[in-house]
């Protein structure tokens, strides 16, 4: 492995309670071995990026109730293509060369997994998005 790949892998946190077996789908295995650690590593930056998104959109998010906030985040991830691409780029940029080769073979399905995992991550940390 090259030094870039080694460096990225050494930065990633270990994820506990991840079940891996030979019967796991390649996508599921990739999700557990690569995506989860990258999302955990990038968590603080991903939170800041969403907060910046809210401020660019006149902080309307902060005037909403809890349920509407959850929906706002979901709609943002579904409909704002530029924002989606920014988030995907933040994740893909942390791939090793080997992971990127796997990613490009099935990018559509893996992009769905990335967005689903981001949505869950953002919604489970909704308390971090209190008024600025």
Major beta sheet summary: none
Count of DSSP E strands? 0
Radius of gyration: 16 Å
Query: What is the average per-residue confidence, as pLDDT, rounded to a whole number?
Result: 90
Task: Return the structural class.
Answer: mainly alpha
Which overall shape is indicated by the principal axes computed on the Cα atoms?
elongated
Helix content: 55-70%
Percentage of residues in DSSP E strands: under 5%
- N- and C-termini, Cα separation: 43 Å
Reading the helices and strands in chain order gives HHHHHHH
Task: Give the total of domains.
Answer: 1
Specify the number of helices. Answer: 7
Please mark out the parts with pLDDT under 50 across 5 or more consecutive residues, or reply none. Answer: none
Short structural summary:
By secondary structure, the chain is mainly alpha-helical. The chain has helices at 3-11, 26-41, 43-56, 66-79, 81-92, 97-105, 107-124. Helix 2 crosses helix 7 (107-124) and helix 4 packs antiparallel against helix 7 (107-124).
Describe the structure using short key phrases.
mainly alpha
Can you describe this structure?
By secondary structure, the chain is mainly alpha-helical. Helix content is 70%, strand content 0%. Helix 2 (26-41) packs across helix 7 (107-124) and helix 4 (66-79) runs antiparallel to helix 7 (107-124).
Topology summary:
Elements: H1 3-11, H2 26-41, H3 43-56, H4 66-79, H5 81-92, H6 97-105, H7 107-124
């Amino acid at each position: 492995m090259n030094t870039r790949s080694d460096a990225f892998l050494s930065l990633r946190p270990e994820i506990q309670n991840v079940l891996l077996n030979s019967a796991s789908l390649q996508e599921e295995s990739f999700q557990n071995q690569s995506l989860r650690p990258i999302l955990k590593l990038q968590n603080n930056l991903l939170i800041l990026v969403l907060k910046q998104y809210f401020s660019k959109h006149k902080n309307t998010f902060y005037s909403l109730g809890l349920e509407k906030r959850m929906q706002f985040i979901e709609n943002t991830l579904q409909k704002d293509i530029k924002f989606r691409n920014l988030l995907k780029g933040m994740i893909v940029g942390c791939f090793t060369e080997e992971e990127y080769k796997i990613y490009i073979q099935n990018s559509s399905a893996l992009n769905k997994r990335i967005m689903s995992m981001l949505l869950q991550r953002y919604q489970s940390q909704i308390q971090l998005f209190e008024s600025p």
